[in-house]
From TrEMBL:
InterPro entries: Schlafen_AlbA_2_dom_sf. Gene3D superfamilies: Schlafen, AAA domain. It comes from the Bacteria. This is HTH transcriptional regulator.
């Protein structure tokens, strides 16, 4: 966060004015609770209220952009038991280093939406197919009569 403080005289009294500007990695939240309304608050003048799921999503978009896979996932309590087993079956490591390389964890150590797609908590069906492609090039000669 970026902040500044100064002493001002207002009505003959010295007061401390503290100004805090908006940071770039919103939403700010309690790490122990994750990015959900019970731990993300929106300030309105002198009061604060819980942020809605939509407000949280908008703050993530403003901070991370709109590339779905690299955006921070709202659920930061992900597990990867099944994915780890699949990697191990292929003789591949699936530790934090590999998860960062693959984009499952971002540079701020948050899980991304790509991570959610590979997590045990994924609610989506993912289907993939692998095809062998044989390219046949045929040349045809056409003649005009």
């Amino acid at each position: 966060m970026h902040s500044s403080a100064e002493i001002r005289t207002i009505d003959g009294k010295q007061v401390v004015k503290i100004e805090i500007t908006r940071g770039s990695r919103r939403p700010y939240h309690l790490a122990s609770k994750g990015m959900k309304p019970s731990s993300v608050f929106v300030r309105h003048e002198t009061s604060a209220s819980a942020a809605s799921d939509e407000a949280i999503r908008q703050m993530i978009i403003e901070s991370d952009g709109t590339q779905y896979e690299s955006m921070r996932c709202i659920n930061q309590s992900l597990t990867f038991h099944e994915t780890t087993q699949l990697f191990e079956a292929e003789g591949l490591a699936f530790e934090a280093t590999q998860q960062r390389t693959l984009g499952i964890i971002n540079s701020d150590n948050y899980y991304t939406n790509l991570g959610q797609l590979l997590a045990d908590q994924c609610e989506h069906s993912i289907k993939a197919a692998r095809y062998s492609l044989f390219l046949t090039v045929s040349c045809f000669l056409f003649s005009r009569h």
